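The records we work with from here on pair a chain with its fold. Taken together, the C-alpha cells spell out the fold as the letters spell out the chain. To see the layout at work, look at the sequence and C-alpha cells printed below.
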Amino acid sequence: MRNTLGDLNNHLFAQLERLSDEDLKGEELSCEINRAKAVTDVASQIISNGALVLRAKTAYEEHISATATKPKMLEG
C-alpha cells in the first residue's frame, strides 16, 4: 500500500472530526486527545521528511544546472 500526502490530509481531517465530537467526554476524550497528539507527531515527521526530499532534489537539480556543459559540437 502506498500512502500519499492527500491520504495524510484525510487522516488529519478525520482526527479533527473525532476531536470535535461533543459526545466525547472524560476518559474517551483524553484517549482521543492522546491519539491526536500521536497522529500529529507522525504527520509532522512525514511533512519534515517530504520537505527534506524536496530540498535535496532542488539542490541536486541546481547543482546539475550549474555544472552542466555544452557538448563540444554546440560550442562556438
